[in-house]
Amino acid sequence: MKNNSSPSLNALRVFEAVSRLGSFKAAAAELSVTQSAISRQITTLEEQLGIRLIQRDNRVHALTPAGDALAPDLTRVFRQIERLVKRTMKNGEHARRTLTLGISSELLRWWLGPMLAEFNQLYPHLELQCVQVPEYLSRQNEAPLTHELLHGELDALLTFSAPAQKAIANWLLSDSQLILMRSKSVPEPSKSELRECKFVAVNTNKDWDRWTKAYDIKIPADQVQLVNNTSMAVELGQFTNRLLLLPDFYARAATEAGLQEVTGLRLTSRHGLHISVRRESQREMAIVALVNWLQHIIEKSVR
Questions:
Q1: Taking every annotated instance into account, which residue ranges of this chain make up the domain HTH lysR-type (predicted)?
Q2: What order do you get walking across the sheet with 97-103 strand by strand?
Q3: Over the stretch 89-127, which tens digit does the pLDDT of each residue have?
Q4: Strand blocks (E) in the chain
C-alpha cells in the first residue's frame, strides 16, 4: 500500500548502498548497522513508495525495474550531498580568518597584549598573528614595512606614525602624550633641579629634543642616554635611577614596574598611534572588525 508521506532519507540512503554494493551484508558493513536493520529500512521504503525495489529470492537480492531506475539517480544525489558537505566544511575552516598584525614587542607587552582575550571573545572567527616590527616608523624602516603591507606579508601595521604610501590606508587611533617617569627611589625633582638629573629617552622622531625645547630645559649631553626602543629605556630607568621619557601608552605598565610620573611635564608627541592596512583591504570585514575594536579600546582605556 502506498504511503503519502515523503520517503525516509535514511531509507533512501540504505537502498542506495544496497544497490551499489549488491548485497545487504556489504551495505550493513558500510553503514555500520545490522543486516536486519537494512532489511527493515528497505521494507519501510517500499511501503512508503508503494512499489517493490528489490526482489528477494533465496537470498539473491536483485533490483526490480523500478529499483534499477531509481538507483543511479540516488547515487548521483548522495554523491552531490557528500561534495556539498565537504565543501561546506572546507569553507567553514577558511571562515576562520587569520590577521597578521605587525606590532612592536613594547606595544604588545605593555598595551595591547592584556586586552587580546577580549578580542578573542568578541571575534572567535578571527585570529591575530603578531609579528614583531619597530614601534616607531622611521625613514629607515618605512620602506620595508610598506613593502610587507603591500605584498600581503602583513595585514595590518600598528606603529607610532604611519606610512605615507597612497596605496595604504591609515587610521589615527590616538595622539600620544610624552610623560616623564622616575623610579620610587628618586625624589620628584623641581623644574630647576632637572638640569642636575640623568635621563634616558628613545631617540626616535626626536621627541627628546622637542620635549626639552618645550620646557626650555638645557640638559648636558653626558647626562642623557638615548636608546633605540622603549624596552631598553624602561630597563635603564628602573636600574640606573634615570628619569625616563616615554609615551603615555606605557604609563600603566611603567607604574606596575615601580615607576612614577613626574607631574606637570607632559607634551603631545608629533606622532600618534596609527593602524595601517592596504587600501584595497580596508573594507574587508576582518579589517573593519580589528580597526573598530582598537578604536573602542582606545576610547574606553584610561591612560
A1: 7-64
A2: 126-132, 97-103, 156-160, 273-278, 168-174
A3: 666 555 678 899 999 998 998 889 889 999 988 888 888
A4: 54-57, 60-63, 97-103, 126-132, 156-160, 168-174, 177-183, 199-202, 224-227, 243-247, 259-261, 267-268, 273-278
Does the pLDDT value for residue 201 go beyond 70? Answer: yes
Condensed to tens digits (0 to 9), the pLDDT of residues 68-84 reads 999 988 888 888 888 77
Q: How far apart are CA 254 and CA 257, in angstroms?
A: 5
Non-local (6+) Cβ contacts of 270 within 8 A are: 205, 207, 210
Helix-then-strand count for the chain, H and E:
11, 13
Task: Look at the pTM and tell me if it is higher than 0.70.
Answer: no
d(CA 283, CA 46): 55
pLDDT at 246: 87
Structural domains for the chain = 9-94 (1.10.10.10), 97-175+271-300 (3.40.190.10), 177-268 (3.40.190.10)
Count of other CB atoms within 10 angstroms of residue 65: 11
Distance CA 76, CA 23 (A): 19
pLDDT (average), residues 148-163: 93
- Give the list of residues 6+ apart from residue 253 with CB closer than 8 angstroms, or none: 109, 110, 111, 234
Could you give the CA distance from residue 290 to residue 123 in angstroms, rounded to a whole number?
9
Please answer whether residues 271 and 136 qualify as being in contact, where contact means their C-beta atoms are separated by less than 8 angstroms.
yes
Q: Write the DSSP symbol of residue 192.
A: G
State how far the Cα of 175 lies from the Cα of 149, in Å rounded to an integer.
23
CA angle 201, 270, 283 (to 5 degrees): 120
Per-residue DSSP letter, 110: I
User: What is the four-CA torsion angle of 246, 250, 256, 257, rounded to 10 degrees?
Assistant: -40
All cell numbers assigned to 27? 551495505
